[in-house]
Structure formats: C-alpha cells, structure tokens
Amino acid sequence: MSALNGRILVTGGAGFIGSALVWALNQRGHSDIVISDILGTDEKWRNLVSLRYADYIEAPEFRRQIAQNPRALGRFSTVFHLGACSATTEKNASYLADNNYSYTKELAAWALETDARFIYASSAATYGDGAQGMDDCDENLHRLRPLNMYGYSKHLFDIHAQKVGWLPRIVGVKYFNVFGPNEDHKGEMRSLVNKAYRQILNTGRVELFKSHRADYKDGEQMRDFLYVKDAVEMTLHFAEHAVGRSAGGLYNLGSGDANTWLSLTRAIFQALGREPQIDFIEMPEVLRGKYQYYTRADVGKLRATGYNRPTTALTAAVRDYVQDYLAPDRKLGG
To answer: For this structure, is 229 an active site residue?
Structure first.
C-alpha cells in the first residue's frame, strides 16, 4: 500500500529538491500537502508559485507546535524531511548541529510516534574523501569521516538513528550531486550547470577549478551527477510502493556513474550550441583539504528494493535543464 494515501508533509518544500518533490507529487495528483520551510529574504518563494499544496507553515513555528502537542497539526501519512542547511561551506557548527541534527531527531521521533512514514535527506557528504568507500551499508557508518561540518551534521543523525534502533523503520536518502530546475536561490551552492550557463551568457567561457592532486588532471575530478527529476522519483519510491514502504535504512541516490567536470561543462556548451571555452582557476585554500575528487553512488541497494527506472543520461539531463528551464527562466510546473 502506498504511504501517499493521506496528508503529506514536506519540510524544506520551498527549496531545491523539496519543491521538485512537491511538483512530482502534484504530477501524480497529490495536493493535500503541507509545506514547511524558512522563506527568509531570498527568492525561493518563487518555487512555490506554480505548486499545489494545502498549507504552508514556517519551520520554527512548526517545530514549536509539534514540541508542545504532537497532534497539533493532525495526522500525516508520510513525512519527507528535506529541510536543512545544505551549505558545505557553513562555518557555524552550532547552527548546523541544531538545524540539521537536533531538529531531525525531533521530527523523526514525532513521525514514529504518530505512525507516519519518515523519509529524510542524509547526504553523500557523509562519505568524506571516499577512503572508506561509498556503499550504503548501514554497518559501515562508524568508519565514515566527513570532510565538513555539513556532512558531519548529517552523519550525526544517521549514527543516532542506528544507535536508538530507528534506522530499520525510517529511510535516509544520500543524495549525490543533484542539479536541475528550482535551484536559483542557492547562491554559491548552485550546481555548475546553473553557474556555467550564466557565465557563458556573460563571457562565453566557463571557469573550472584546477586539480591539486597529481592523479587527477585539471577538470578530470569526477562526480556522480544526478538530475533532480530522477532524485525525486527515487525518493518517492520509498513511499509509493509496498516494497519501498517496508524498506528501511540508508540508500544512495545517484546515477551510478562518475563523470568529469569537463564532460559536464561540454554538455552545457552543447546544449547552447556553442564550442567549449574553458579556463582553469586556482581552488580556494579553504576548499583544498575538504574537496572530493571522486564520487560515484553504488545504487545496488536501491535497485534491490524494486526501483527499476533508468536515470536520465547526463547530456539529456543538461539539455532539458538548459533549454526547458534556464533559457526560458522557468520553474518546475511553470
């Protein structure tokens, strides 16, 4: 039975992946959705304009209400907890510990108490430099060494959920490098596709970081790039199907392939019908010791739950994003 046959909560629902998830739910005919987020002073409110949902509540008020009375906001069949600070450069460790760790603990306890399916965003940043591998086996958690506080804040909850016995009853999804529509508000955390598109329009060229490892040439650092439309399909799988509902634990969400920054950049130029013009620049000192040179999701565990949709090829995903969203300045659903 689908866990989507009832009211749905999406925290971070005005953000990048959150708003894409709401869009995908709308595509399936679901609109009994409550969105929680912090709209603040950026432009992410624009992601909500074309979406259909029942109500919106600011995250601090939502947190206060469920702390006072777990039943205050009624029952939900599924909780998608995608609300977090996702800036890998955030230096306020206390803020990350509260917002990404403590709040997730509170929400998970509340969801389990009210018998809601709880699906939350962990991150591939928990894998650090990948020296301990990037497989999503729950038993490997204590070996992981995140490179930044964002990754560590996500790792803290994964460890906690395992320690208190929640992990078999909830789902944590480890997103790899997700890109696509509705990320404009993310500033420096936007994908290269978004940044490069604007660089090309302004200068005709794209800047990439030089490599500071001898085993990787400039531009040949590799990432598992995942289109946001695929990311939300994978996420919804864990609520939509009976096999998905019975699955608990941590799951990598990625394409399963590693592509270079050069391959990604050439796909952007191709989508614009231009010849590649690429400059290599020095990597900022603050990033050098925290930079992942290679990521690739092992998605065997995801596939074993019955998820069998193919992922969008990189060139096709970039073309869709550039031509159907960036060029006409459209949002998902717009």
So the answer is: no
Query: How many angstroms separate the CA atoms of 236 and 132, rounded?
Result: 28
Token code pair at residue 267: 């796909």
HSE toward the beta carbon, residue 326, CA cutoff 13 A = 26
pTM of the model: 0.95
- Average pLDDT rounded to a whole number, residues 97-111: 95
Question: What percent of the chain clears pLDDT 90, i.e. is strictly above it?
Answer: 84
User: Does the annotation count 301 as an active-site position?
Assistant: no
Q: φ, ψ for residue 47 (rounded to 5)? A: -65, -25
The H or E element that residue 81 is part of is strand 78-81
pLDDT of residue 4: 85
Q: Is residue 45 within 8 Å of residue 185, measured between CB atoms?
A: no
Residue 172, beta-bridge partner list? 120, 250
What is residue 28's three-state secondary structure? coil
Return the CA Rg of the chain.
Answer: 19
* Amino acid (1-letter code) at residue 138: D
Which of the residue ranges 62-71, 107-116, 129-138, 313-322 would you say has the lowest mean pLDDT?
129-138
Question: What are the phi and psi torsion angles at 5 (to 5°)?
Answer: -85, 60
Q: What is the mean pLDDT of the chain?
A: 94
- In the CATH hierarchy, which top-level class contains the domain 8-178+226-255+298-309? alpha beta
Any idea which of 1-15, 35-49, 173-187 has the lowest mean pLDDT?
A: 1-15
Q: Which among 101, 103, 127, 150 is annotated as catalytic?
A: 150
Catalytic residue among 56, 105, 186, 195, which?
A: 186
Among 188, 187, 206, 181, residue whose Cα is nearest residue 268: 206
